Amino acid sequence: MDKKFPYLIILVFGSLALYTSCANMGMPSGGAKDTIPPVVIRSIPQANQTNYKGDEVRLYFDEFVVPEKLNEKFVISPPIDKRPIFRTKGKSLIVDLNGAKLKDSTTYSLDFKDAIVDNNEKNPLKNYRLAFSTGPDLDTLRVVGFVLNSFNLEPSAGTYVMLYKNLSDTAVLTTKPDYVAKTDDNGFFAVTNLPKATYNVYAVTDNDNNMMLTSTAEPVAFLDSTVTPSAKYFPKQDTAVVGMDTLLVFGKTRFYPNPLYLLQFEQPFFDLRLDNETRPTRKYVDLTFTQSVKDTFDIQLLNYEPKGNWKYIEHSANDDSLRVWLTDSMVYKKDTLKFRVTYEQQDSTGVKYAYNDTINLYFSDAPTDKKRGRRDRRKIEKKDVNVSLSLNTRSNGFDVYKNVSVESPEPVKSMDTSMIHLFVKQDTVFNPIDFKILPDSINKRRFFIHYPWDYKTAYRLKIDSAAVTTIYGAVSDSVENTFVTQEEEHYGTINFAIQNVTGPTIIQLLKNDDKEEVVRSKTIYKDGTVEFPYLEPQKYKVKAIFDRNDNGKWDTGNLEAHVQPEEVFYYPEVLKLRSNWTMNPTWQLSTQEVFKKDIVDKEKQEEEAKRKKKERNSKAF
């Protein structure tokens, strides 16, 4: 064998190793990410085609597509009797009308929203519509607008907007609409390709998907007047068209009416029932109802006849939850209790009647441990006859505008006020001071200590042992609590100068979050200043409610009575309040309906501007 042959083999394999190592230095780049949505190349029928007689619609794309929640988002107007079937084939999407017969000489509009996406990056084809006619003419009128939640003016997404040629007030309850659209995430809707006619307009959250308002539990909105869409041709395009007007202008044609605003509300409806019943302890029963049972509730014991009053009922703020304290020991010592609960019900004709519900509730004491010593048993016995009072104080920063709340775990039968003491720290000594004791008008387990607290001052509350006796004969343990009030510089104040007040108006100060919890609320009847003192340093929203019936709260609408919900407005700026600061904003309430919730947070805007500037500077280098 040639001696050069082994060297030749080594040279070949060495070259291969060098080649492969160079080839594997890094993975090849896949190029820029695809951000382009699919493009419709053609369709059957063609866009705006007339005299179409087919039973399906086909869309052809420049790439493979998939439906993304198409069953939820797709809308065909006028609505058809059956739900379409969607399927893909190659680079096409097929809308099978599922045997539904299209009406003669009718223009149909198919709205796909953003439910068609490409197969790779899921880029959506946004706001795609296809219109065609089964007759010789194509209808081109439109009605656009927004659906908003009437209580907080937030967009109402996924709501059907329904147009009826039948102008009867009951049409929305009995028949499907002539034309329909669905709102997007911004609450925007567009009912397109309409013939000229006069319509009633409704917005319905169609929970049962039957294209009608079938339950008072379904949120609804309605226009007070009918709508007759029209269009006007302008020989020259209006270059001043901006903002909302762009929704109404197409080419050189302007569409009417102006954008509609529908304020959706939940109607008052009767749905009272016992939702839950429990007996957490031997001494009380908790009953939870779906609605208020104020003035309609009664409870009777069926498996025992007590000699006297055997109960005390504690109501929640909304009267939809009740705690029935069993005050008779012969009653609460029973493991099994059978009750007849009476509350109001309503028959199919709307007539209310007293309904009796029978419930059985059980309670069993935890098994006792026979190995416990005498000292442990004494502790248990003491726990049964003594109760601990709870306070709402905190060691530092107690709010000067609050009362001290004292709460017993059981209803209070009696209280010896001479055994309750309040002291104020002066120099280094706590001196006794006079104060008031106020009972809670709702909760029999709670009372308040009232005193005009000074800023940044130490107080001591002392409650002697047995100062409070409960309805079960238990006495309270002693309580001694020292707390320091908040300093004056901690708080801020907002003094709102309100103008254009035309009637009872509720001004609410809200937390700056999605829940918009009410912090303070005042009703005014004329122009003036609304003062909100002792405020925490934080951000706030401000809301106005036109309280038409002057009952101190926001009222929803009523479709049957043709009553719109009470109007609400928001101050257009988030207020950032600092400690030791007084804000004096002026708010001119609008004399016209305003359907906006454009609340500017200047601090966020400034932060966003700084962030963008920082990004631009970093890219420049």
UniProtKB/TrEMBL annotation:
A Pfam family this chain is assigned to: Big_5
Q: Which residues form the SbsA Ig-like domain?
A: 34-134
Please provide the record's keywords in A-Z order.
Signal
Q: Give the source's domain of life in one word.
A: Bacteria
Signal keyword on record: yes
For this entry, the protein name equals SbsA Ig-like domain-containing protein
Name the source organism: Prolixibacter denitrificans
Q: What is the lineage of its organism?
A: Bacteria, Pseudomonadati, Bacteroidota, Bacteroidia, Marinilabiliales
